Amino acid sequence: MQTSQKPLEKLNIFSFRGVPMRTFHLTWLAFFFCFFGWFGIAPLMKVIKDDLGLTKEQIGNTIIASVAATVVARILIGRLCDSWGPRKTYSALLALSAIPVMTVGLVHTYEAFLLFRLAIGVIGASFVITQYHTSVMFDQKIVGTANAVAGGWGNLGGGITNMVMPLIFAAFVGFGFVPASAWRLAMIVPGVILLVLAVLYYRYTKDTPAGNFDELAQQRGTSPKAKGTLALAAKDPRTWVLFLAYGACFGIEITFDNIAALYFSENFGTTLTTAGLLAGTFGFMNLFARALGGILADKVGNRYGMKGKGYLLALLLALEGTGIALFAQTGHLAAAVVAMLGFAMFLKMANGVTYAIVPFINRKAIGSVSGIVGAGGNVGAVLAGFLFKSSTISYSQAFLYIGLAVAAIAALVAVMSFEKVRVEEPEVAVA
Asked: Which parts pass through the membrane (predicted)?
């Protein structure tokens, strides 16, 4: 058994020593590759559309399916982190999710494809474990930065997926496979990676800096597992405001990850590879933008408290909504890319600020709060998906409506007080 450690007060991203830093790197890396399984299909949708003969409405349904299952999964996974521990939870999720990712190529009908997209969507719950694990591994003075960097580098997978999956597809075509077979074979690659990561995560991480839940129970005679955390998180109105806020930022991010390549391809006539690269630049900004939001939130929080963090989040959401509305009005490719990069910056910073607030809602129910707020991101994506599946609303109109909705949520965040309140502590289970 490893020596007990404490949460780190400093994030040294070049360090791999100790339980907290090893967990930090494994959790963002696992989340990064979860995007390959979750959205690996998105940049290949042009080929899949032709192969399966999908309509615009059917494509919209698959987009909704890819994020709908994650809503329930994130809430359940958050509760499991509090009770079962993040190490076992993440390992199991990676292993189970790899199955539909590797076998989605077996489908030949719209109905089967829809069911597989629904099953694959469960992997999106990986984000909750990532944020939970970094929240317990780092001190409160730096937790916003740690969460944002881990989440941002993980979200980077959404952009890299758009760039890399068309290349993997092209490689299989180069080996002599027809496109209808190449996209199916391409999806096996991320599935195998997820299986490898499941083993690595189980072997090389711990639930907390002090050790695993089971180990701590043996040492102390009691368990850190908490009961009643989900109800506790759900009773706090701040949880639900953050639920809406995350729907307005991360919800729109994963919607854009799903639709961007197809949007650029159909609206501006770009090739599949070019569309993937343009969509990839949106996700690539996670390399720094989400981290910047977390760093700024920590600095604002240290000086102005939770009220300052709340105002910062409201401002970023307002700027994001304005940027999306402008993107919707662009008719030229270059202008669309510039507008996209603009709203992407504010959106991803808002992601980071949201989860710089989450760990302070209730330290005893971090997993449950994180799960509910994370589910909000997917609820936002589901609602946005209905706009994109409509036969009477163009993609440009859908983006305009989304921009207005984000601005409205920004106003709600601005009037919400995120200051600490006295809350009932959850029951602690005895091992």
From this structure: 21-39, 59-77, 89-108, 114-132, 153-177, 183-202, 240-264, 270-289, 310-328, 334-358, 365-386, 398-418
